[in-house]
Specification:
Elements: E1 2-6, E2 15-19, E3 29-39, H1 41-48, E4 63-71, E5 83-87, E6 97-101, E7 105-107, H2 114-117, H3 121-134, E8 142-146, H4 151-162, E9 166-171, H5 174-182, E10 187-190, H6 196-203, E11 209-214, H7 217-226, E12 228-236, H8 248-251, E13 256-259, H9 267-282, E14 290-295, H10 299-306, E15 314-318
Parallel strand pairs: 8-9, 8-11, 9-10, 11-12, 12-13, 14-15
Antiparallel strand pairs: 1-2, 3-4, 3-6, 3-15, 4-5, 5-7
Helix pairs in contact: 3-4, 3-9
The protein binds NADP nicotinamide-adenine-dinucleotide phosphate.
Length: 319
């Protein structure tokens, strides 16, 4: 099969398309024929060496969707020819086939395309975990999705809206803000406008928001603390460096700053999150938005694009 291989950490150009051996499943494993691959910022961080040592060569990628090709002994919940989405894998998803633990493979409802299926794993599990496991969101609360135009943010808008929260989302471009509105945000703000946090305070009648899902904490965390309601929670989803904050801003509000990483969620937490996501895909509440499609050979271009401003849903690779 063809697969992207990384021979050493570096820029997007270290990814090359190679011919490698087809994977074979052992007990409790599944091989999926990949129809579409989701590109996430974490794929670029891993490629660049920011997530610690790896043995080379390796195939990057965590998300994909496709059809079950082979199952090993003891695999019960999927069968050959089932349509599935993949959330995490043993062999890397930037390939024509991917080897997974059975627990990393989830049924793909009929109304969800393979391209959409490739946009579920990292973004939707992160959005769900941030809202409920870490943010303890309750219906009726107000959530600011700070960076709502990309993969995680657009997922969070759909999930939060379907669960009865008041949703305020931000985007940096007109196109991105339209997506945020179309996916269900009650209010949309431009995170580059000088007065957007004043607008936010007006929208909440001076109260502030109960929860913030923060995609760029190194830029926003200090400002976030000033627009939190009493007992408010900021969930740090993304951060690309250090930031200065005034801790006193948390004191008068009894407010929390809560970090999160799906990489450190337990297996039981991950499994519960995917049960909720499959239900949301089945009932149509969750509808991954595909912004750009590229071929697998264009993985390097996809990694350049994912790190640039102007997010719009998901970038998908097609093998
Ligand atoms: P993405 O699709 O590239 O989206 C990035 C988002 O950040 C866009 O909505 C972008 O808006 C927004 N943004 C840019 N500048 C901003 C600013 N000044 N203020 C607020 N938002 C701003 O990436 P993603 O897949 O959604 O991931 C978002 C972040 O979460 C990344 O840093 C990623 O590494 C991280 N992440 C963490 C976890 C975890 O487990 N903790 C899991 C998944 C992702 P515009 O482009 O419209 O300006």
């Amino acid at each position: 099969m063809k697969a992207i291989q990384i021979q050493g950490f570096g820029g997007p150009e270290v990814m090359t398309l190679e011919q490698i051996a087809d994977p074979k499943p052992a007990a409790g494993q599944v091989v999926v024929t990949v129809k579409a691959i989701g590109v996430n910022p974490v794929d670029a961080y891993i490629r660049a060496g920011l997530y610690g040592d790896r043995s080379f060569p390796f195939t990057p990628g965590m998300d994909a969707a496709g059809v079950v090709k082979l199952i090993g002994p003891d695999v019960k919940h999927v069968k050959v020819n089932d349509s599935v989405y993949v959330a995490g894998s043993l062999s890397g998803t930037y390939a024509e086939q991917v080897l997974c633990k059975a627990s990393q493979v989830h049924p793909l409802p009929e109304k969800v395309s393979f391209e959409q299926g490739a946009g579920i794993g990292v973004p939707y599990s992160t959005a769900y975990f941030a809202l409920f496991n870490r943010g303890h969101a309750m219906p009726g609360e107000i959530v600011l999705i700070h960076g709502a135009s990309g993969g995680v943010g657009s997922a969070a808008v759909q999930i939060a809206r379907s669960r009865g929260l008041v949703v305020i989302g931000t985007g940096g471009t007109e196109k991105g803000r339209k997506l945020v509105k179309d996916e269900g945000a009650h209010h949309v703000l431009d995170h580059h406008a000088p007065d957007y946090l004043d607008q936010l305070m007006k929208l909440t009648e001076g109260q502030g928001v109960d929860i913030i899902l923060e995609m760029l904490a190194n830029v926003n965390l200090g400002k976030d603390l000033k627009v939190l309601a009493p007992r408010g929670r900021v969930v740090v989803v993304g951060s690309r460096g250090p930031v200065e904050i005034d801790p006193r801003e948390t004191m008068g509000r009894n407010a929390d700053i809560r970090g999160m990483s799906m990489l450190y969620a337990t297996e039981a937490e991950v499994s519960a999150v995917h049960a909720a996501l499959v239900a949301g895909l089945e009932n149509g509440n969750l509808r991954p938005v595909i912004g750009q499609k590229m071929s697998l050979a264009e993985a390097a271009r996809a990694h350049q694009t994912i790190m640039e401003p102007g997010a719009y849903g998901k970038i998908i690779l097609v093998p």
